[in-house]
Structure to design on (289 residues):
């Protein structure tokens, strides 16, 4: 009995010391990102962490020593395999940092298994599906037509949580010049590098449609972000009866452009970070549509 009591008291004192020495997940993450900045980490890497940080909002006030495997799996439950793995790796790096600081005794995120991914045939949208999506956007959420057009006809990254599509402003859309284009400043791109995209006829026609109907042309092109944007995009895809494909609009744009012009330097700059092999595989699907 005395041995059991000693073990109980010892366990209680250990947990008490651990709690006293620990910090919240929010504090640990903020300090980790500060170290990334100090170490010269890329803007893209920092932004990825900021996005994942938001996903774990429900656990921000939880001490890192009190996190559980079940907590982590619940937060990541609805992620695609690629996002699951990316965000789990980023959480692991934060908890490794916390362990280094002795805020937690072990990294529970290491007990959550990464999702196995097979290199499958890439999925893209057919021209008919693209047309239907744009028409449904015009009917159900006309204010989002420029947003849909930029993702579809300019290859803009679609992340709703502070991604490129939510940072582009109307000042970046150059219409009063012979060379109609989109000038993306470094603070709007994933890589932090300035990017120029030629405005092709389909994009120009949908931008004109928005302007002619009296749509807003000040501030950010996308009027909403985060959950509100994700919800309305889902409504558009549902109305069009088109299955959502991760990065499907961006890859469809790349495949279409590749099939007409090849993997030119200009296309590589437009897509940024989209591997040529993936673009070629998408193209092989596109030309059979």
């Amino acid at each position: 009995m005395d041995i059991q009591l000693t073990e109980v008291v010892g366990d209680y004192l250990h947990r008490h010391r651990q709690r006293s020495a620990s910090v919240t997940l929010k504090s640990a993450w903020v300090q980790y990102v500060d170290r990334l900045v100090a170490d010269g980490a890329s803007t893209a890497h920092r932004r990825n962490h900021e996005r994942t940080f938001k996903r774990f909002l429900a656990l921000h006030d939880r001490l890192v020593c009190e996190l559980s495997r079940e907590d982590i799996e619940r937060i990541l439950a609805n992620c695609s395999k690629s996002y699951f793995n990316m965000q789990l790796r980023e959480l692991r790096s934060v908890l490794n940092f916390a362990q280094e600081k002795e805020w937690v005794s072990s990294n529970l995120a290491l007990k959550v298994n990464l999702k196995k991914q097979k290199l499958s045939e890439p999925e893209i949208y057919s021209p008919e599906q693209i047309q239907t999506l744009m028409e449904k956007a015009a009917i159900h959420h006309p204010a989002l037509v420029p947003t849909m057009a930029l993702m579809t006809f300019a290859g803009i990254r679609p992340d709703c949580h502070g991604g490129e599509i939510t940072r582009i402003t109307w000042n970046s859309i150059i219409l009063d010049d012979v060379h109609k284009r989109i000038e993306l400043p470094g603070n709007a791109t994933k890589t932090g590098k300035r990017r120029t995209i030629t405005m092709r006829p389909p994009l120009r026609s949908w931008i004109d449609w928005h302007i002619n109907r009296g749509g807003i042309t000040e501030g950010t092109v996308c009027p909403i972000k985060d959950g509100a944007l994700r919800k309305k995009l889902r409504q558009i895809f549902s109305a069009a009866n088109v299955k959502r494909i991760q990065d499907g609009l961006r890859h469809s744009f790349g495949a279409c452009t590749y099939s007409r012009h090849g993997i030119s330097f200009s296309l590589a700059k437009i897509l940024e970070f989209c591997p040529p092999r993936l673009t070629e595989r998408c193209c092989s699907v596109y030309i059979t549509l």
